[in-house]
Amino acid sequence: METALVSCDDHLDLNMLPANVWQDRMSEKWGDRTPHIVEQENGPALWMADGERWGFWSGRPMGFKGPKPIHTAYDRGGIEDLTELRAGNAKLRLEDMDRDQVWAHLIFGPVTSINTPDEAFMKACYAAYNDWLLEDFCTAAPDRLIGVAMLPPHPEAAFDELQRLAKKGGCRQANLQIAVAEPRLEDKRWEPLWQLLEETGIVLSFHVTVFPGVTKAFDKYKGSPGATFLHAKMFIDQFLDPFVDLFAWGILERHPGLKIVIAECGAGWVPWVVEELDYRHHRLWECADFWDDKGGIPHEMKPSEIFKRQVYGTFQQSPTTMALTDFWGKENLLWASDYPHPDSIWPNSVAKISEHMGHMNPQLVKGIVGGNAAKLYGLDLSKAGLKARIPMEGDKAAA
């Protein structure tokens, strides 16, 4: 089977960003507070901003020797030199996409940075990154490199940035780092953001984060093999409350044009939660007479109906999810390679798709690996200059 692959969760992390991203885009008034690279005499190069350490930079050799406790896609793909900043170099990234037979990437930005209490400085950092991503980086191949803008984790600042991006145009999706978003989503301060997203048609995504506050559960277990298993808990922990809030407080029902992508949290756990929400919805209406003189029940639609209308999920490789396609529906699953993260299947995407989807209906697979994304983001895959050749069981039978 030949088809264009669109990976809906890929990355451009802090360590892979060019050194001049913020310095070329931010006002001189910020001076030394502007995010910049500091090269240590004994140690790795660091991103520093406003006197705070943001994280490592791979543009200089890390000096790490010996076995690694965790492998990235680059390790599995035989790439040892990270100083070329492959994910942040459009030419090299496109070469890596060609190697993987992937036509387009949805590119999420740093998941560990832009962490500052100064709101004005924070807003300037977000705006500078988003402008660089959409105006500099992705313009190298606009049909293939699809930037996901970053929104500040507070409602007023997120609204201002989304409004700014909408006026400029060219933004298809914006990401809210939901694990650190404050206040919780039922707060009315978020309402203008939901309205703006619906009006502009920009898709909103929630993506897993690795801020120190989120990963504090790991501190006690660092250096233990058992800590590896905690990731399974951390991913769902970050999403469960906000996911339920979307239904419990009527956010999606009030805004039927709002589209949500839940990224890199897995898709297999979602059906039970939605099933349970449907049951609770039934229990609520079972007692409708109780609510008659208390304002009534605003939750008219079943959560599962709202879910299929408005929620999408990404996954890399998941036999469980493939067994749940009837629940998700034909258009709501979005395949991803997660390049170049540790969980990534790059550069073996075609082999993994064949392994986990080769037994399925080819038209359904075409939707999952690219067609659904094309519809959601307005992509014209008829113009795709690269199509993957995916071995399917039907091909073997015909041979």
UniProtKB/TrEMBL annotation:
User: Which GO molecular function annotation, any one, does this entry have?
Assistant: carboxy-lyase activity
| Protein's UniProt name | Amidohydrolase
Q: Does the keyword Lyase apply?
A: yes
State the species of origin. Alteraurantiacibacter aquimixticola
Biological-process GO terms, alphabetical: secondary metabolic process
**Pfam families tied to this protein:** Amidohydro_2 (PF04909)
Residue ranges of domain Amidohydrolase-related in the record: 126-379
InterPro entries, per database record? ACMSD (IPR032465), Amidohydro-rel (IPR006680), Metal_Hydrolase (IPR032466)
